[in-house]
Amino acid sequence: MSLNVLRKPSSSFEGTRLPAPPRGPVKLTTALAVAVLALAAWAQAQKPAGVNVTADLPAGAMQAKATTACTECHEARIILQQRLSKAAWTKEVDKMTKWGAVVDPADRDALIDYLSTNFSPDKPAYDPQRTAGAGKSSK
Amino acid sequence: MNSRRDFLKHISSAALLAGTAPSILTWALQQQPAVEVPGEDGMVLRSFRFVDLESPVEYFNTWLTPVPHFFVRNHMHEPSELDAHDWRLSIGGEVDKPLTLSLAELSKIETHSVVNTLECAGNGRSLHRPQVPGIQWGKGAVGTARFSGPRLRDVLQRAGVKPTGKHVMFRGLDEVPGKVPPFIRSIPIEKALDSDTLIATHMNGSPLTKHHGFPARGLVPGWIGAASCKWLTEIKVLDAEFVGNFMSPGYRLPNQPVKPGDAVKPEDTHPVTALTVKSVIAGPSDGATLKPGKIVVHGAAWAGEADLVKVEISADGGATWSPARLGHEQSHYAWRLWSYEWKPGKDGDYTIQSRATDSQGRTQPEAAVWNPSGYLYNAADRVNIHVA
């Protein structure tokens, strides 16, 4: 596991920074710093591969039903990045239902409310993650 | 020699660091690792399933985009199984002799190369106001590569196109979820028979990767990416435009500008085909703070089937524009890199804009034409920087 991950916080932890190291470079603190960073890298490496490959929909009364209806075909990020009016969400929900999303007619309005409340035009812009890599490819 | 005070300082800073250790460990455990997508390098993750990846604009500093930096657009799931040995390409419909080709047979047909700037029709969709549904691309669903493979027309001529053949349909092997309409589109016969339209098997000299359509894809130069069907397995000559969701209502523009909420009749729309004129600033980055002195503004500009004529830069809100220097590397369907050396007069905040003009006389507008699906966003690009 590269320590690069420690220098480049992902979008979901925007604003998170490593605590500033204490001043006064000395052997003892340097050794301890190396140990802590190594331990942090080790802790990262212990996480099972594939965790957080896809994102989750936000909490709410319709979270479970929206997850079932929408993520059968595509993951949540496609929803998380939208900023749409209720009219636009209504068209999307009806289109996706026609295309096979399983939405109980009794849940349609609540699903539209859930999506248009969480992903309305006034919400802050979605901040996407990056794929792994250093951006150094040459061919 | 260390004094006692120094020693205590060491101890206290060590203790302080030890105190921070748990928070570092907590942070490391909570931190989402960058998502591994094999073959892709530091791309903006628009979606993992299905895979949609965008190039950060700072990658636009090479004429040819390395494959791991090239945007990926999928409407569906990529084929779960692809075997070069078993793969076949059928050519049928309005032809005299329907054909089926293996990859070995396809590779025996004379190969041509086209350096092409491929751009998703929805590139820049997130910049339209009001926002419209779809993948919320920033500025990076575009890239330039050398595509190689047989000409589509050489394959079509083997099958013998009948005079009734007016459109050529492509079908790929992507896997359709639910009741979603399959991603099938067609191009007019004139474009299909153009000497630069390919069945591409290679990208930048290497076989196509899976994300880019291995083992073969259509390559319709100068046109929106959706025309260049990936994982190509069927070519069918039709007597009219293919009828399906991704020809209509998908990938169509209103004939006249419309306002948000306006109903648009299908007969008042036309298919999106060739790309428009556009430039993107690769550097400096939006929001950057730069030291006073010489600043190199640089980026890429393209114009679909037209030739790029000039790129101009403004650092005074569009009051004056100065020509950028165009890069030497060029090819008919490929973008040109450009650069402009600028020296800010004083410290402060600046908006730097770029606008391109092409051989058809088109210039990037101040504001893009809004449309219900967010296609062909091409407003003059801009970055805000601070000089101090």
Outline of the structure:
Chain A has 139 residues and is mostly helical.
Mind explaining what this structure looks like?
The complex is a heterodimer of chains A (139) and B (388). Chain A has 139 residues and is an all-alpha fold. The two termini of chain A are 25 Å apart. Helices cover 43% and strands 0% of the residues of chain A. Chain A contains 6 helices and no strands. Chain A has helices at 4-7, 27-46, 63-70, 77-80, 86-98, 108-118. With 388 residues, chain B is mainly β. Chain B folds into 2 domains: 44-271, Oxidoreductase, molybdopterin-binding domain (Sulfite Oxidase, Chain A, domain 2, Alpha-Beta Complex); 278-387, Immunoglobulin-like (Sandwich). Chain B is 11% helix and 31% strand. Chain B has helices at residues 4-30, 103-107, 152-159, 189-192; strands spanning 44-47, 52-54, 88-93, 99-102, 111-119, 142-150, 167-172, 184-188, 198-200, 202-203, 206-207, 217-219, 232-238, 252-254, 269-271, 278-283, 289-290, 295-302, 308-314, 322-323, 325-326, 336-342, 348-358, 381-387. The two termini of chain B are 43 Å apart. Classes of the chains: A mainly alpha (139), B mainly beta (388). Chains A and B meet through helix 2 and helix 5 of A and helix 1 and strand 1 of B.
